[in-house]
Specification:
By secondary structure, this protein is mainly alpha-helical. The chain has a single domain, classed as Na+/H+ antiporter like fold (Up-down Bundle), CATH 1.20.1530. It contains 14 helices and no strands. The protein is globular. The two termini are 15 Å apart.
């Protein structure tokens, strides 16, 4: 019990404190999360993704391995969510909300600082690749799933062209391939904005949680929470063996797989008119319960 307590205090509590500040800010000062969410979605998140890709010191083989692992974890958990949702006969919008919130873990504004605190810089490098993969998927597949709640396939695919993170990813990959370097002023500008992204995301998480609404769709909420918090880490463990992850890569990968639902899913739900009460309820519930699942997981992975 002492080890569990220390693990929670040293790794999870700092993150919860910053999120709580955002929660209180929204509760007492009535700060609207939507403008901050749009700044995050259209500016800070793309810059953070670009910066992480450009600064990664991992070999291309290790980057590719972690990206493949992250994609496999996300799609397998989301596939299970889709099957369970169909079995329980969720409607189209409800099913899109459940798949969206189980497909994407909070790999960035929760996962990155947590892994940095718990396992150090080497694990953080792998976690950054996981986050980049998550960001690629959330800004492509995520947008597609969210928009399919109301739009047809053609309109959804065209909507991908409006997502700036897509272009940030393409530019970063081109620069890495060609060996180009940015001038110092741009490097410093990008680094400054990227450093601001995670704290803003944590505050945004608190703001969004303060506005969380209870949903009558308890069935969909339960499916999302169970798959994200309980099934996710077991899928991560199984696939870590399949992909041959070890040491820091294994710690980072499994921890990211066990994260609660991504806060950016609430932004997508708002942007594309999904059931926002259901999405925010799943994000709120999984985030609230995550210390109960993450604390013993961190202790296990640290041994």
């Amino acid at each position: 019990m002492v080890e569990l307590y220390q693990t929670f205090i040293n790794n999870l509590l700092p993150i919860l404190i910053i999120s709580s500040a955002g929660f209180l800010l929204g509760k007492f000062l009535k700060v609207e999360p939507r403008p901050i969410g749009r700044v995050t979605f259209y500016i800070l998140s793309p810059i953070l993704v670009f910066n992480l890709l450009m600064e990664s010191q991992l070999t291309l083989d290790r980057i590719g391995l972690m990206m493949g692992y992250a994609a496999a974890v996300n799609f397998l958990v989301a596939g299970l969510a889709y099957l369970v949702g169909r079995i329980f006969r969720l409607d189209r919008i409800g099913l899109a909300a459940v798949v969206l919130t189980t497909l994407f873990s909070n790999a960035g504004n929760y996962g990155l600082p947590l892994i940095s605190f718990a396992f150090g810089q080497e694990a953080l490098a792998y976690a950054s690749v996981y986050f980049v993969t998550n960001a690629i998927l959330i800004n492509t597949v995520g947008v597609l799933i969210a928009s399919l709640g109301h739009l047809n396939l053609k309109e959804s695919l065209l909507g991908l062209l409006k997502v700036p993170a897509t272009y940030a990813i393409l530019v970063a990959m081109l620069m890495m391939r060609m060996g180009w370097q940015l001038p110092t002023p741009l490097v410093r500008t990008i680094s400054l904005a990227a450093n601001a992204a995670i704290p803003v995301m944590l505050v945004l998480l608190g703001l969004e949680l303060q506005r969380a609404e209870w949903t009558r769709n308890v069935r969909a909420l339960s499916i999302g929470a169970v798959l994200r918090l309980l099934v996710g880490p077991f899928v991560g463990m199984g696939l870590s063996s399949l992909f041959g992850l070890d040491n820091a890569a294994r710690q980072a990968g499994i921890t990211e797989a066990a994260m609660p639902s991504a806060v950016l899913t609430t932004v997508l739900a708002s942007e594309y008119y999904l059931d926002t009460s259901l999405v925010t309820a799943i994000v709120f519930t999984t985030t609230l319960l995550s210390p109960l699942t993450l604390t013993p997981l961190l202790l296990y992975l640290g041994k």
